[in-house]
Amino acid sequence: MKSISRALAFIVAALSLSLARAYEPLPAVVDPSALDRTAEKTVAIVGGQGAGAVRPIQIRTGGDYAAANDIEEFVNATNYTTLAGLNAEGDRAMYLDRARSTFNFKALQLKPCYYGAHYFLGDIVSASYKGFSSASEKIIGVTVSFNAQDFVEHVVLDMMNV
């Protein structure tokens, strides 16, 4: 890949965050505290073996459960015969369907890092922040505009997760 052969790495900087730097820095805005709640469930209604009134039911709640955050799912646990098994299956479902921390960043063009000189279409931009896993995005499109009156170049990157 172009980005590997040129050994490009980019800096991620936002607010007062101090992050590791590498060869050619490409600053970015970072939001390390975002939560992805799109698939989150906070209550598991776990059904065991049997039918009707004799079917054991256990209710398990996740760590983010609250009156204003009550998203239920039914977990079919007919392969368990004990309440401990039902609880374990409900806890597993709550773990798998919890809100997940995401690492979001947006690469920015700032001096002294310029498109066409320091980074190119197809390059991979990677960022990391202490306590969060790293994230990488590929530059899949670039829009460059120039204001001749102010002599200002404006670069907008289209990125794709890799």
Q: Topology of this protein?
A:
Blueprint: H1 2-5, E1 28-31, E2 35-36, E3 43-47, E4 57-61, E5 72-76, H2 83-96, E6 100-101, E7 104-107, E8 124-129, E9 132-147, E10 152-161
Parallel strand pairs: 3-5
Antiparallel strand pairs: 1-7, 2-6, 3-4, 8-9, 9-10
Descriptive account of the structure:
This protein folds into two domains: 2-34 and 102-161, no CATH class; 36-100. The chain is 11% helix and 36% strand. The protein has two helices and ten strands, in the order H-E-E-E-E-E-H-E-E-E-E-E. A hairpin with a 2-residue loop joins strand 8 (124-129) and strand 9 (132-147). It is rod-shaped, with a radius of gyration of 24 Å. 20% of the residues are buried. Mean pLDDT is 76; it is low at 1-26.
Q: What share of the residues lie within helices?
A: 10-25%
**Distance N to C terminus:** 13 Å
The structure class reads: mainly beta
Per the principal axes of the C-alpha atoms, what is the gross shape?
rod-shaped
How would you summarize what this structure contains?
This protein has 162 residues and is mainly beta. 11% of the residues lie in helices and 36% in strands.
Short key terms for the protein model shown above:
3-stranded mixed β-sheet, disordered N terminus, 3-stranded antiparallel β-sheet, mainly beta, 162 residues
